[in-house]
Design goal:
By secondary structure, the chain is an all-alpha fold. The chain contains three helices and no strands. The protein has one domain.
């Protein structure tokens, strides 16, 4: 155990950083749905430059999310390693499941959001050509 922190303080750090991970994940989901909704509602007004700008901004936000998420997850894993002897086994098991489910959710969400954004753009362009 880390000699500079008590068990209580170590668990508090783990829970605080875990809460930050959840908050970060909620931010990413909100950003993803904002892109999807804007593509659905505003696609008729999207041109290539706007679609590309939204796509790049979203991908940069995802890169920022992934970097922050990785750094926080590293911190959580470090403190979990220090406190492993005093943490309940069920807690340790659930952390593994959370890590396993967040990664495919994130990767799938990024992919689906980008596909939907560009699909909406192409569909709007097709509709504009058909109206002429």
């Amino acid at each position: 155990m880390n000699e500079s922190l008590t068990n209580y303080e170590t668990v508090d750090v783990i829970l605080t950083a875990g809460g930050q991970l959840d908050s970060l994940f909620n931010y990413w989901i909100s950003a993803s749905f904002a892109v999807i909704v804007s593509a659905y509602v505003g696609r008729a007004h999207f041109n290539y430059a706007i679609t590309l700008s939204i796509s790049l901004l979203y991908l940069l936000a995802c890169a920022m999310f992934a970097t922050r998420f990785y750094s926080l997850a590293t911190l959580v894993n470090y403190y979990i390693g220090l406190a492993e002897a005093v943490l309940p086994a069920a807690f340790l098991d659930s952390i593994s499941v959370l890590g396993f489910t967040r990664t495919p959710t994130f990767l799938g969400g990024v992919l689906v959001t980008e596909i939907y954004l560009w699909h909406s753009y192409r569909q709007a362009q097709t509709e504009k050509r058909e109206q002429r």
